[in-house]
Specification:
This protein is α/β, with parallel strands linked by helices. The chain has helices spanning 33-42, 62-67, 85-95, 115-124, 169-181, 189-195, 215-226, and strands at residues 4-9, 27-28, 31-32, 47-54, 76-80, 102-107, 130-136, 141-145, 148-153, 159-168, 200-204. The chain has one domain: Spore Coat Polysaccharide Biosynthesis Protein SpsA, Chain A, CATH 3.90.550.10. It is 30% helix and 27% strand. Bound molecules: cytidine-5'-monophosphate.
Length: 230
């Protein structure tokens, strides 16, 4: 089914590492993190377009220019993001090709996603309203109030959400509209679809699908590449 749009969120907002370079544009093996991420999506046959959402100041930057692979076989468009991740995704949704039935949302700072895993999330949308990549929690999670433990959560039922998070386009757009109407902010896309009653499947992911948010993550990413573990 070649009617899937990928939205890759790469607004260089938020905290920066020691470097003044926004996280999606840090260098990993001679290319930017975002360049690696886009390459993974270009290997997915079902994807018909890629929309990169970044901050307006970066739209004409050299950082972005070098991050877009030359001679890609599908259109790669760039648009301005918003204040929070949720605003950035919403801007991306406005730009999606009207013919697309499925939309796949991915963090620009997760450069090691397997193309097969992306495909699995797309395929699961035949069965559910959406599907996200997640991994079982290896840590025991505690609910805390005033620095005291209130509850230990049964680890066997806890999974950690990653991206991509892939949905039927109409359902995702409606969930976003409802969230803005009701002033709800979610830390991921699935939470908005859950709140509007959607059924979302899980694709078991990998711990290699790291999110580069601190110096430590960048070091791990470099090591994984050097060791050929990606
Ligand atoms: O900050 P957070 O962990 O939510 O970032 C996850 C992804 O969302 C990153 O790839 C970041 O570039 C992107 N993002 C965005 N627009 C924002 C904030 C974050 O595209 N306003």
């Amino acid at each position: 089914m070649k009617s899937t749009s990928a939205i890759i969120v790469a607004a260089g907002s938020g905290t920066r590492m020691k470097s003044s370079v926004p996280k999606p544009f840090l260098t990993l093996d001679n290319n930017t993190v975002l360049y690696h991420t886009i390459q993974r999506f270009l290997q997915v046959a079902d994807i018909s377009e890629i929309i990169i959402v970044t901050s307006s100041q970066l739209l004409t930057s050299e950082y972005l220019r070098v991050s877009i692979p030359k001679s890609a076989s599908i259109p790669i468009r760039t648009i301005a993001g918003g204040k929070q991740r949720q605003d950035s995704v919403y801007n991306g949704l406005q730009a999606v090709n009207p013919d697309s039935i499925i939309v796949c949302i991915h963090d620009g700072v997760r450069p090691f996603i397997d193309p097969e895993t992306i495909t699995s999330t797309i395929e699961l949308c035949n069965q559910y309203d959406g599907a996200i990549v997640a991994v079982p929690s290896t840590n025991t999670l505690k609910e805390i109030q005033d620095q005291l433990i209130v509850k230990t959560i049964d680890r066997d039922i806890i999974w950690q959400a990653q991206t991509p998070q892939t949905f039927r386009k109409d359902i995702l757009i409606n969930a976003y509209k409802q969230a803005f109407r009701t002033n709800v902010t979610g830390t991921d896309d699935a939470s908005l679809v859950e709140q509007s009653g959607g059924r979302i499947g899980i694709v078991a992911g990998s711990l290699r699908n790291i999110k580069i948010t601190c110096q430590h993550d960048l070091l791990i990413a470099q090591l994984l590449l050097e060791k050929g573990a990606i």
